[in-house]
């Protein structure tokens, strides 16, 4: 007789039969029936029709039956709210029961019934239970407050439950304290600024006392809460650390990792010369190593965290390299993580061991893992200079195996080794060239071509090799095509005499026969460069390259600091700040490590004596393309127009191009040369190409050319304008009176996907103003200037100047009130001025905000109704189609339209720059100037702003 | 906190779901199934899977995936540890943790899950307490319950739950008072081609079975506590006493529990109990390969090495193996290419060996990969780290308990590269 019998009946009259059994007089039969109902519920059958019958069974002395009925209630109360009221009386009665088990059960279950009407009845019993004499009831009630807050936050605040909860932190029973902390932490998550968990030395002391005595789960809650505290000084910090260290020996790995988090954070405040600091460092290693002997999924989470820890404090695990050696039956996700950490820990002392291991891995079966292992060898070479030679010879050994994917990976990493140690290992080029034919992956082909181009002067048959690649030019991927183009140009500059034909061929392939704008533009640039000033061309193309150095995949120091504060959480698994992925990111506070005692307030510059390598000297990472070009060319990089380039007058351009190409090559090639020129049919395309890639323009262009280009840019900017995105009229942000004569008025606009802050600066003072600069305070959506404020000329008295500042949305985030408030500081030679302004939220609607129909439907259903808000837009006289067009201009996309009884319903979606989706239903009735808009969003705070934008967009 | 739990069987059906907050549609598991499809082996499904609105954290135990759904930032280890606890509890209650067992006891399962979490917060996860709240099903009790209509749910608040020793209930009574401790050590090691140790470490545990009346207070001391520098304790162990005197002092839970687990790291010298001589070769152009393996005891302190099982994943190109064991039996699965050899006991006078040929696909090239050899073994009456219990004392109760300590060494992940 087992429970599986409950699963067997699938007859039609089942519900009917159950109903009869539930109403039976026999207790036993009733219980069996309820069990059957529960079993059906677990497998997803709908048994909600039995609601009244099941609730009738609730009044019973049999605890098991009561529990079963409660289980049922929790599942179905939401769909039958009126019926659920029937149960209230029993709950209230049970809350008075002499048995604490029943009292606790009642208050616990009541909190799980997510029906508004019931919550009202819950308040009184809950208040009593929070003060119950029995700690079991109190701890259950504490969790119940969190449940209630989830259903109706306002009610909890009005009833003063939060204060009661705070009082429970001082409860005599450690389990009650732990649950109160857990409940408060959960509530605080939805109220980032509420300061619910007001941590002070007294509460910390209470928490630390409770920590020793509560359950393992309670310890996790308390430790996570402790991690948010900032100690006053290093003494307090040390005393907390001392009381937390015993947790490192706990059997529960979550407790261990939470304790590690607290220690890693508070350690920052300890002076490095303190004995205790060294002791603590030593104590941290064993528990981390132990985590690695646990089950694979625990290992995975541990490894992701260890990856952070070794970047912040490599000294903790520097002697533990061996525990990261890969076992051949580890799951692949564990293998890859271990490999990553091995490289981070690699040093001169252990490199021999590491290399031997990596070589072993390179002969394993799993292709992904083998590839990563080969790549790791290359990373070791770059990281540990002394080992470079050994790494290269290991790689050559691997190339000898002729295993296709191993060879390809090896070539890719050897290219990086060449970039790090130029002119050192070129002797291996011959071996590499032998494997030319086996390369079929774009990355490997591109790497090989790069090597041939870079060392063309040492490879006798470089031209033949490159020519062989050129045959299938159009079938290659873009990466290979670009590399081939560059390599041939390099070859040409090095050996101009023999390779003219080749360069001509590749230039025409790139510019005429290709549709890829990047390729075409690069082709034209080289072409022009070669024809205008071959010497400059040589300087540009064959310039000495910055060396790549150290590790290229280190986490950026500020992010790392933040992640260290989140050890053990999802953020630490994904290596992303919580604000980047936590749903709705309700203005998540960025956490920072506290500064060390020596360095005072400056968190950014830890004291120079510290041993933490990663933070004090941020390793030179390969500069991103933008920076490099900025330095190199000193060009104004501001608005890279992404709108379609204007059609250039083809004949004029064609002539120009002809001229350009005619001249220059002679000087490079001497008398033997035949002028390049030929068919210049691609002239129009050329103009277009220039329009789209302003950033790649070398500075050494002659004046008229660049003048022409400027015109093109202007045109491009002009084309971007009539996109139709709504932009409010300029208002005065900073009156002259308040800013010693500087008046700023401005507005925001979104052009071609870039948010622009457009300002008019007027000088109403008597003296000239110069040296303008601008800065933003942290704000709700992370708006920040994408470049410096470009005001090049001094502003003389009574003069006005227009400035447009492109904004990015990757700045620091802090929730503002109102949400779209932006605090700005503007500096000039006179003083610094502050003002605040509000931007229309429609600036933040991104271009890809159009949701799939299906997704829209699903999301609309998925967002709870409580998040819906409705607004009226008065006096609007647009037809529904016109409305839809108008809104589309501002990236509000109409997904569907439905007409019901003369009403047009428009379903619209928009997406904010931080990934929040807003769904809207707009009801337009012909003849009625009042529209109704319903907004649904997971972050309901934005609804009000969105509505205001709606009104503004429609009425302008 | 933890929102929901789905149990998924090997064929990809959700056979149980439980929600602690609002109901999450089971369609959320589609993301899990996608990840499952991408993974080559069932074990390779990543433990943390992000979906647009939720995170799925899963463990695979007894061929059942336990998939937890969370919505906000919750420590993943917290969830994984909890899932382990769920698995342990099921095993504890039903003897096995299988789909059939769970379905047979679905009501108990539901009652248990409800008792273990409240609103996603762990409530009662100690098996002692759970057993007082919900009695485990036994054949006898099921029969009695069916006849008398009595219940298997405890009516009273478990006594231990709020005391200072939440892991022990009061009023425990036994006629035979006994306390047994098992010291079990597993060696994890990687041995390279030439037979030298690349890495070796020991994972040890002390499992206890304590059946003592009343509230006994035990102390356990070791001959060589210095070995234990990396330990994780059961919450009952008094940490201060350990720090100061290196003595384990505790009021034990009732019944079976793990007193401590420890780790002897690779920096200490770890004894390797067996050696392997191997010669696995393939020749270019030949469709035959040679296989030659001999085992022998190494550092065993005179104890016998038993229950030896050798297994190896041979290269994909191997069609069949024709081998000759000097003792025991071997099997080769031509589909998975898994070779396993059940050796039994190693006799130091006559070393076990397995010799013969492997046939390759005709014309196929020589396999690139070198097979790794996995070894399982047992050594009774010895802890390979050398750990020894000095004495066990009991305070607080008057009777004289029966005490026993057993040692055992096993191979954990013991791998020999070829």
Topology of this structure?
The complex is a heterodimer of chains A (956) and B (418).
Chain A: H1 5-8, H2 14-22, H3 27-42, H4 51-56, H5 63-76, H6 81-94, H7 100-112, H8 116-130, H9 135-151, H10 153-158, H11 161-168, H12 174-189, H13 201-213, H14 216-226, H15 234-244, H16 253-267, H17 275-291, H18 296-312, H19 332-345, H20 351-361, H21 367-383, H22 388-400, H23 404-420, H24 429-434, H25 442-454, H26 462-470, H27 478-494, H28 500-511, H29 517-532, H30 534-541, H31 557-564, H32 570-574, H33 578-581, H34 613-616, H35 625-633, H36 650-669, H37 683-692, H38 703-720, E1 731-734, E2 742-751, E3 754-763, E4 773-776, E5 784-785, E6 800-808, E7 821-827, E8 832-838, H39 853-862, E9 868-873, H40 880-889, E10 893-900, E11 903-911, E12 917-925, E13 931-937, H41 942-954
Antiparallel strand pairs in A: 1-2, 2-3, 3-6, 4-7, 5-6, 7-8, 9-13, 10-11, 11-12, 12-13
Chain B: E1 2-8, E2 14-19, H1 29-38, E3 48-50, E4 55-61, E5 64-70, H2 76-94, H3 99-104, H4 106-116, E6 117-118, E7 121-122, H5 127-133, H6 139-148, E8 178-191, E9 197-211, E10 217-222, E11 231-233, H7 239-245, E12 247-250, E13 255-264, E14 274-282, E15 288-297, E16 306-313, E17 318-325, E18 329-333, E19 338-344, E20 353-360, E21 372-380, E22 389-395, E23 402-417
InterPro entries (chain B): Adaptor_comp_med_subunit, AP2_Mu_C_sf, AP_mu_sigma_su, Clathrin_mu, Clathrin_mu_CS, Longin-like_dom_sf, MHD
Keywords (chain B): Cytoplasmic vesicle, Golgi apparatus, Membrane, Protein transport, Transport
Domain MHD (chain B): 176-417
């Amino acid at each position: 007789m087992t429970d599986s019998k409950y699963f067997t009946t699938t007859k039609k009259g089942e519900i009917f039969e159950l109903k009869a059994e539930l109403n039976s007089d026999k207790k036993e039969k009733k219980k069996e029936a309820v069990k059957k109902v529960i079993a059906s519920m677990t497998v997803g059958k709908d048994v909600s029709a039995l609601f009244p019958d099941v609730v009738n069974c609730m009044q019973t002395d049999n605890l098991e039956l009561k529990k079963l009925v409660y289980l049922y209630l929790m599942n179905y109360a939401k769909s039958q709210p009126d019926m659920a009221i029937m149960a209230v009386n029993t709950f209230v009665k049970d809350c008075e029961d002499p048995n604490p088990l029943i009292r606790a059960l009642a208050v616990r279950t009541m909190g799980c019934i997510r029906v508004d009407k019931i919550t009202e009845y819950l308040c009184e019993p809950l208040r009593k239970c929070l003060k119950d004499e029995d700690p079991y009831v109190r701890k259950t009630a504490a969790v119940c407050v969190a449940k209630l807050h989830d259903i109706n936050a306002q009610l909890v605040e009005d009833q003063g439950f939060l204060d009661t909860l705070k009082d429970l932190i001082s409860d005599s029973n450690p389990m009650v304290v732990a649950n109160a902390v857990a409940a408060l932490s959960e509530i605080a998550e939805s109220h980032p600024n509420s300061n619910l968990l007001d941590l002070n030395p007294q509460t910390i002391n209470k928490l630390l006392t409770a920590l020793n005595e509560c359950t393992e789960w309670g310890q996790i809650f308390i430790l996570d809460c402790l991690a948010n505290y900032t100690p006053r000084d290093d003494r307090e910090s040390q005393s907390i650390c001392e009381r937390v260290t015993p947790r490192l020996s706990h059997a529960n790995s979550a407790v261990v990792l939470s304790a590690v988090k607290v220690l890693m954070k508070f350690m920052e405040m300890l002076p490095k010369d303190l004995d205790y600091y060294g002791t603590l460092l030593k104590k941290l290693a064993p528990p981390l190593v132990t985590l690695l002997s646990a089950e694979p999924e625990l290992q995975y989470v541990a490894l992701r965290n260890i990856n952070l820890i070794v970047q912040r404090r490599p000294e903790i695990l520097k002697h533990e390299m061996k525990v990261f050696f890969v076992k051949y039956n580890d799951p692949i996700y564990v293998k890859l993580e271990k490999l990553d950490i091995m490289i981070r820990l690699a040093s001169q002392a252990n490199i021999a061991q590491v290399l031997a291991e990596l070589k072993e891995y390179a002969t394993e079966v799993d292709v992904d893992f083998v590839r990563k292992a080969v790549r790791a060898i290359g990373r070791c070479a770059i990281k540990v200079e002394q080992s470079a030679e050994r790494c290269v010879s290991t790689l050559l050994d691997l190339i000898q195996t002729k295993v296709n994917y191993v060879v390809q990976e090896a070539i890719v990493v050897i290219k990086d080794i060449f970039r790090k140690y130029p002119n050192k290992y070129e002797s291996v080029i011959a071996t590499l060239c032998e494997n030319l034919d086996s390369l079929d992956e774009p990355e490997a082909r591109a790497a090989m071509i790069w090597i041939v181009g870079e060392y063309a002067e040492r490879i006798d048959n470089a031209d033949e090799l490159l020519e062989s690649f050129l045959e299938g030019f159009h079938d290659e991927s873009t990466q290979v095509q670009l590399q081939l183009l560059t390599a041939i140009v390099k070859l040409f500059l090095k050996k101009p005499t023999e390779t003219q034909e080749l360069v001509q061929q590749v230039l025409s392939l790139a510019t005429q026969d290709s549709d890829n704008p990047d390729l075409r533009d690069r082709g034209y640039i080289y072409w022009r460069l070669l024809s205008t000033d071959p010497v400059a061309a040589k300087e540009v193309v064959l310039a000495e390259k910055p060396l790549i150095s150290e590790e290229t995949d280190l986490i950026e120091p500020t992010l790392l600091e933040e992640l260290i504060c989140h050890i053990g959480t999802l953020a630490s698994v994904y290596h992303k700040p919580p604000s980047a992925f936590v749903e709705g990111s309700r203005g998540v506070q960025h956490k920072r490590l506290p500064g060390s005692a020596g360095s005072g307030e400056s968190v950014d510059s830890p004291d120079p004596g510290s041993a933490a390598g990663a933070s004090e000297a941020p390793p030179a990472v390969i500069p991103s393309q933008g920076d490099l070009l900025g330095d190199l060319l000193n060009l104004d990089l501001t608005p890279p127009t992404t709108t379609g380039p204007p059609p250039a007058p083809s004949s004029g351009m064609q002539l120009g191009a002809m001229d350009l190409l005619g001249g220059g090559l002679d000087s490079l090639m001497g008398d033997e040369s035949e002028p390049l020129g030929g068919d210049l049919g691609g002239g129009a395309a050329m103009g277009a190409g220039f329009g789209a890639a302003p950033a790649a323009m070398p500075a050494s262009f002659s004046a008229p050319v660049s003048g022409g280009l400027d015109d093109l840019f202007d045109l491009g900017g002009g084309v971007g304008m009539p996109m139709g995105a709504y932009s409010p009229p300029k208002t005065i942000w900073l009156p002259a009176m308040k800013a010693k004569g500087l008046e700023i008025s401005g507005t925001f606009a979104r052009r071609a996907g870039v948010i622009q802050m457009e300002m008019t600066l007027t000088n109403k003072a008597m003296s000239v103003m110069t040296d303008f600069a601008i800065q933003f305070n942290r704000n709700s959506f992370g708006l920040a200037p994408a470049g410096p404020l470009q005001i090049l000329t001094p502003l003389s008295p009574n003069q006005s100047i227009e400035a447009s500042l492109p904004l990015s949305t990757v700045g620091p985030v802090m929730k503002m009130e109102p949400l779209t408030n932006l605090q700005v500081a503007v500096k000039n030679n006179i003083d610094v001025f502050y003002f605040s302004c509000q931007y229309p939220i429609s600036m933040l609607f991104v271009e890809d905000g159009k949701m799939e129909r299906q997704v829209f439907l699903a999301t609309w259903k998925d967002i709870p109704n409580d998040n819906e808000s409705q607004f009226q837009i008065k006096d609007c006289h647009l037809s529904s189609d016109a409305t839809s067009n108008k809104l589309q201009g501002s990236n509000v996309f109409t997904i569907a339209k439905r007409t019901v009884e003369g009403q047009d319903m428009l379903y619209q979606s928009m997406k904010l720059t931080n990934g929040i989706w807003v769904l809207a239903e707009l009801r337009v009735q012909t003849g009625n100037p009042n529209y109704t808009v319903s907004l649904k969003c997971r972050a309901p705070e934005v609804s009000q702003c969105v509505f205001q934008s709606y009104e503004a967009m429609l009425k302008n | 906190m933890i929102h929901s739990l789905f149990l998924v069987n090997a064929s990809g059906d959700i056979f149980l779901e439980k929600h602690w907050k609002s109901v999450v549609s089971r369609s959320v598991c589609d993301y899990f199934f996608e990840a499952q499809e991408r993974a080559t082996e069932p074990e390779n499904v990543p433990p943390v899977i992000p979906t647009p609105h939720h995170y799925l954290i899963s463990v695979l135990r007894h061929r059942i995936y336990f998939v937890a759904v969370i919505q906000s930032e919750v420590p993943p280890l917290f969830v994984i540890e909890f899932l382990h606890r769920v698995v342990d509890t099921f095993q504890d209650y039903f003897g096995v943790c299988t789909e059939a067992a769970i379905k047979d006891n679905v009501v108990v399962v539901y009652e248990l899950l409800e008792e273990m979490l409240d609103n996603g917060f762990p409530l009662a996860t100690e098996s002692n307490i759970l057993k007082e709240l919900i009695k485990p099903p036994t054949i006898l009790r099921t029969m009695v319950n069916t006849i008398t209509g009595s219940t298997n749910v405890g009516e009273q608040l478990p006594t231990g739950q709020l005391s200072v020793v939440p892991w022990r209930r009061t009023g425990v009574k036994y006629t035979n008072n006994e306390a047994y401790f098992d010291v079990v050590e597993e060696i994890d090691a990687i041995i390279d081609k030439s037979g030298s140790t690349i890495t070796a470490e020991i994972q040890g545990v002390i499992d206890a079975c304590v059946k003592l009346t009343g509230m006994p207070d035990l102390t356990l001391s070791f001959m060589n506590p210095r070995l234990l520098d990396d330990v994780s304790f059961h919450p009952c162990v008094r940490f201060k006493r350990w720090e100061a005197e290196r003595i384990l002092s505790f009021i034990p839970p009732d019944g079976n529990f793990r007193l401590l687990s420890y780790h002897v790291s690779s920096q200490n010298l770890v004894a390797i109990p067996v050696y392997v001589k191997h010669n696995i070769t393939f020749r270019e152009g030949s469709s035959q390969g040679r296989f030659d393996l001999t085992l022998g005891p190494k550092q065993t302190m005179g104890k016998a090495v038993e229950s030896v099982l050798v297994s190896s994943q041979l290269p994909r190109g191997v069609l069949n193996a024709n081998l000759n064991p000097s003792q025991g039996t071997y099997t080769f699965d031509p589909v998975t290419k898994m070779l396993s050899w059940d050796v039994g006991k190693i006799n130091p006078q006559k070393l076990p060996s397995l010799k013969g040929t492997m046939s390759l696909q005709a014309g196929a090239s020589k396999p690139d990969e070198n097979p790794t050899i996995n070894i399982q073994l047992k050594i009774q009456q010895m802890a390979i780290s050398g750990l020894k219990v000095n004495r066990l004392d009991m305070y607080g109760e008057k009777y004289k308990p029966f005490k026993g300590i057993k040692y055992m060494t096993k191979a954990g992940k013991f791998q020999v590269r070829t």
